[in-house]
Amino acid sequence: MNAGASNVSFDLTGRTVAMTGGTGVLGRVLVTALVQAGANVALIARDIEKAQALFPANVAPKERFLILGADVTDSNTLRAARDQCLDRFSRIDALVNGAGGNTPEATTSEGRRFFDLPEPALRSVVELNLLGTILPCQVLAEPMVRQGEGVIVNITSMNALRPLTRIPAYSAAKAGVANFTQWLAVHMAQEYSPRIRVNAIAPGFFLTEQNRFLLTDRETGGPTLRGASVLAHTPMGRFGEPADLVGVFLWLLSPAASFVTGIIVPVDGGFSAFGGV
What we know:
It is a single chain. By secondary structure, the protein is of the alpha/beta class. Helix content is 40%, strand content 14%. The protein is built from 10 helices and 7 strands. A 7-stranded parallel sheet has the order 3-2-1-4-5-6-7, sandwiched between helices. The longest helix has 24 residues, at 168-191.
């Protein structure tokens, strides 16, 4: 089907997608969307047993699904994962960088000042989110250069566009991911092939394992003060559901976005557009 047709298919049958961060709340939904769209999926996970438990054979077809162990901050393990992916599927058509996260030790609170945040915690957050995006691009996008085509989708955050209180390292790292996304889009198009596209998704406030009890009360299920503030600044008046990411995600991976590169797409219920009045 022509990419310019009015009814563009998001079918990814025969395409091989390598993905990091697929065992988190949001990542699991995106992995499932890839499988349902017909893609071959190489899930790169640090905890292989967790990945195997989340995606048993009856959920993801064995012939189209491969779980590979690697650390996104370790190039050697990423190269081994890349080689195993190529051995199985021969190509890497797309890379999704979904690995990331924050830690309480890198978060300010009433009992933890910015000046007291320990260096190891700050380093780990920046390395996981920023270096953990750059290194997979170095290693897993190299086959795209030989192919002359490919797609990279990075997962950044609303914090990249509007830094939030309490999480300085996470916000700075995700801002770095957004900047790197745009840099790499230009670099790939100019130095290698205009058919290698690089974009990012910036999720707004989704209830995940990481932030659920920052946004909702553990006992009542209602919003915390922080959660209420988020909802008050979200025109659509709710937190995001993981399925809300799927449409944009498949669009960026598909031929429907063939002339789209270097953008960061907010999926935030209008949070980034609202000035508060």
